[in-house]
Specification:
globular; 25 strands; Topoisomerase I, domain 3; 22% strand; Topoisomerase I, domain 2; 6-stranded antiparallel β-barrel; single chain; 665 residues; 4-stranded antiparallel beta sheet
């Protein structure tokens, strides 16, 4: 049996016993070459695949083992990527002529699921393989042609990609919304009232027959006039409405919603979430983590409902199993949502799992349980109170039945009003006017950017995390306090692409490509036709625009002269990032590292702190080191003394660092 990873192979081998050898391909074994296009655009876009150097040993092992095997099961992941990996393994290892090579898939790594898959083998689905080939070839044609253009017009090391460029465009356009935003002033009027020795707040919603919209009270003067009119009046209850509000449970996790919740609740990046989920999947703890389905198998649903009934009682169990409707038009409903393989296994019983894996597993477990529970019921009391034609409203809200909230808490402000009836008079404690300003839209976080891509039909579950990493690794976007801000180079690249290659960064076009890939996967289109329909006009446009696009300089002149020749210094860009160089290059070759102002401020503050300070361990002097993950304070006695301190906004947090070597690297 061939799988992708050694961890997965080890887990499966434990289920199958000595009759099976389980080998790992270590992911893709073949790909397009890095040194050239690798796509014959004159011959129906025929791709040229090569076996990567690092994969040759694995391919040889698979080939040799297959020679003595009665059957070879290609058990790579159940999505298009996994189908393509299986096909590439078969081609690279020369297994294509054998009738004893079969394809199997399973959504969970459990003995039951694997044995069931072995009973139902099939041939490789070439429609799925072709869909993956089409994506790979299309992305290569875009990247291989546009990236050199960016190198010539901006600087070397830049890249363009079909999904990554759209992601950068979203971030850039959001930043411009923020920059162009003009705050509007508005005021609110609130009465603090008392009844039965219990205080409660009521908000003004209507003034003398006119509804108070959000921006209706525009300045302090208008608010003051309202307060004057309310002097010496009585606050009389005119309406009391008691009702119930039902909060439905959330659907199970898809890849994107898992990434979003892990970011919001645990602070994990998309890349981090997928790494942890991969480990949980390969250990047989959760089902396949790249999915856009929101439903479970019938057996899994039954097990979850039985667990709810056993642990919470019948009152928490809906009369019928819940099924959910996906919001993604590209969803592959044959897959399952992400769930624990064994719902009875709690996060506290994972044994040797790392702490972050345990946190993610617990999040998946709770989301799975809550998805099959009864809704929460809130008891709502809405009250209207009048004074001289001015109407205020107040709402009381209490959880009447927790339902799914028992396992998946949400922020619900519980407010209990005093017992009020129509005609009751409340006492005024205070009348307040408060100034507010409208706020610009928030910058994207990784979670909200993934949601925006998904809502626009752009990308697939397997592409979200790599896209988030790529746009940051390329320096197009930087993460500040958990939010994504475009760097200058990201703005320049985006504007060049939007102006000259609008299709590449067009939301609807990029989403339409996903439709085409789905049709290829369903056998409704030839992948070569889809590529041809894109490439012919793209190639023509590329030739037209290449000569017309002017070179853009990213250099920034500093108010500082070169210590070697006295000419001005500039901030320059390269594939390795920013650096400071002399403006008279190549005559003068002075360079030094560039440190972002915010990081330099941390370093300066830390250097002030450590003056006259000594290492608490060895009494040697301390120094500030700008490492891979930012500046930190270290001992000058390193490597004999491994003492270090984190720098947090100029303050220090000391601890013994056991991995100092990697920090310094």
């Amino acid at each position: 049996m061939i799988v992708e990873s050694p961890a997965k192979a080890k887990t499966i081998e434990g289920y199958l016993g000595s009759d099976f050898a389980v080998l790992a391909s270590y992911g893709h074994v073949r790909d397009l070459p890095k040194s050239k296009l690798g796509v014959d655009v004159e011959n129906d876009f025929e791709p040229t695949y090569i076996v990567a150097t690092k994969s040759k040993k694995n391919v040889t092992a698979i080939k040799n083992s297959a020679k003595t095997a009665d059957l070879v099961y290609l058990a790579t992941d159940l999505d298009r990527e996994g189908e393509a990996i299986a096909w590439h393994v078969m081609q690279a290892a020369g297994l294509g002529q054998s009738k004893n090579v079969r394809r199997i898939t399973f959504s969970e790594i459990s003995k039951t699921a694997i044995l069931e898959a072995i009973k139902n083998p099939r041939d490789i689905d070439m429609n799925l393989v072709d869909a993956q080939q089409a994506r790979r070839v299309l992305d290569r044609l875009v990247g291989y042609n546009l990236s050199p253009l960016l190198w010539r017009k901006i600087y070397k090391g830049l890249s363009a990609g079909r999904v990554q460029s759209v992601a950068v465009r979203l971030v850039v356009e959001r930043e411009r919304e923020i920059e162009n935003f003009k705050a509007q002033e508005y005021w609110t009027v609130t009465a603090l009232l008392e009844k039965q020795k219990k205080e409660f707040e009521a908000r003004l919603i209507e003034a003398e027959g006119k509804k108070i919209e959000k921006l209706a009270i525009q300045n302090e003067k208008q608010a003051g006039e309202i307060l004057k009119k309310l002097e010496n009046g009585k606050y009389v209850v005119t309406a009391v409405e008691d009702k119930e509000e039902r909060r439905n449970p959330l659907p199970p996790f898809t890849t994107s919603t898992m990434q979003q919740e892990a970011a919001n609740n645990l602070g994990f990046s998309a890349k981090q979430t997928m790494r942890l989920a991969q480990g949980l999947y390969e250990s047989g703890l959760i089902t396949y983590m790249r999915t856009d389905s929101v439903n479970f198998s019938q057996n899994a649903t039954g097990a979850i409902r039985e667990y709810v009934k056993k642990t919470c009682g019948e009152s928490y169990l809906p009369s019928e199993a819940r099924r959910y409707q996906t919001k993604s038009k590209h969803a592959q409903e044959a897959h399952e949502a992400v769930r624990p393989v064994d719902i009875a296994k709690l996060a506290g019983n994972l044994g040797g799992a790392e702490s972050q894996q345990i946190k993610l597993y617990d999040l998946v477990w709770r989301r799975t349980i809550c998805s099959q529970m009864k809704e929460a019921i809130l008891a709502i009391t809405d009250v209207k109170i009048e004074n001289k034609g001015f109407i205020f409203t107040s709402r009381g809200q209490m959880v009447k039945f927790d339902g799914f909230l028992k396992f998946y808490p949400q922020k619900i402000t519980q407010t209990q009003l005093p017992k009020l009836s129509k005609g009751d008079e409340a006492n005024l404690v205070d009348l307040k006017r408060e100034q507010h300003f409208t706020e610009p839209p928030a910058r994207y976080s990784e979670a909200t950017l993934i949601r925006a891509l998904e809502e626009n039909g752009i990308g697939r579950p397997s592409t979200y995390a790599p896209t988030m990493s790529t746009i940051q690794d390329r320096g197009y976007v930087i993460k500040e306090k958990g939010r994504l801000r475009p760097e200058k180079v990201g703005v320049v690249v985006n504007d060049l692409l939007v102006e000259n290659f609008p299709d590449v960064v067009d939301f609807s076009f990029t989403a339409h490509v996903e439709d085409d890939l789905d049709e290829i996967a369903e056998g409704k289109q030839r992948w070569q036709k889809v590529i041809n329909d894109f490439y012919v006009p793209f190639e023509k446009l590329l030739k037209e625009r290449s000569e017309k696009i002017e070179k853009t300089t990213m250099d920034e002149t500093l108010e500082e002269t070169c210590p070697d020749c006295g000419k001005s210094l500039i901030i320059k860009h390269s594939r390795r990032g920013k650096f400071i160089g002399c403006s008279s290059f190549p005559d003068c070759r002075y360079t030094r590292s560039f440190i972002e102002p915010a990081v330099q401020a941390k370093i300066d503050a830390a250097e002030e702190i450590i003056k006259e300070k000594k290492c608490p361990n060895c009494k040697k002097s301390l120094k500030v080191i700008n490492g891979k993950f930012g500046p930190f304070i270290g001992c000058t006695g390193y490597p004999e003394c491994k003492y270090m301190e984190k720098i947090n906004n100029g303050s220090r947090e000391s601890h013994s660092n056991q991995n100092r070597e990697s920090s310094r690297e």
